[in-house]
Specification:
151 residues, mainly alpha, UraD-like, EC 4.1.1.97, purine metabolism, OHCU_decarboxylase-2
C-alpha cells in the first residue's frame, strides 16, 4: 500500500509558511489522510512572529475578496448587504490600528454578522490572546484548505 502524500506547492497554497510545509513533507508518506491532517495541525500550532506575518500577507481582508479560494471561503459575507461593507472596513481599520496586522478569521461557514461579532469580541483581547486566536484561525483555514485539496 502506498501512503498519502502531498506537494510543497499544495501545502504552501494552504498556509504560506515554508517551515510548516517542510515539517509536513518530512513525515511523508502518511498512513492515511487523517495522519497527514494531524501532522499539518501540529505543525501549524507553533508559528513564529515572522511566520505569522508571512501567512497573513497571503490573506485578503475580510470583505475584500481575493482569489477564487478566498471568495469561496467568504461566501457567507455579502459586502453589498446593508451596512456590511462600511462596518467591515471600519472594523478592519480599528483592528489593524490596535494589533498592527490584518484581522484574520476562518470565514468559511460564517456570515457577516457572525464575523463582525467575532471582530468586536476579539478587539477586547490583549496582544497575546489575539495572537493565539489569529494563529488558531490560520491553522483552521490551512486544515480546511488541505482537506479540500485532498478530497
Amino acid at each position: 500500500m502506498t501512503g498519502v502524500t502531498t506537494t510543497r506547492e499544495t501545502l504552501l497554497g494552504c498556509l504560506s509558511v515554508p517551515r510548516w510545509a517542510d515539517e509536513v513533507l518530512a513525515g511523508q508518506p502518511y498512513d492515511d489522510r487523517a495522519a497527514l491532517l494531524a501532522a499539518a495541525d501540529a505543525a501549524a500550532r507553533a508559528l513564529s512572529d515572522a511566520e505569522l506575518d508571512q501567512a497573513l500577507a497571503a490573506h485578503p481582508r475580510i470583505g475584500e475578496r481575493g482569489g477564487a479560494r478566498s471568495q469561496r471561503e467568504q461566501a457567507g459575507v455579502d459586502p453589498t448587504a446593508g451596512d456590511t461593507a462600511p462596518r467591515l472596513a471600519a472594523g478592519n481599520a480599528a483592528y489593524e490600528q490596535r494589533f498592527g496586522r490584518v484581522f484574520l478569521i476562518r470565514a468559511a461557514g460564517r456570515d457577516a454578522p457572525a464575523i463582525l461579532a467575532e471582530l468586536e469580541r476579539r478587539m477586547g483581547n490583549d496582544d497575546a490572546a489575539e495572537r493565539a486566536e489569529t494563529v488558531d484561525n490560520l491553522r483552521q483555514i490551512a486544515l480546511l484548505r488541505l482537506e479540500e485539496v485532498l478530497s
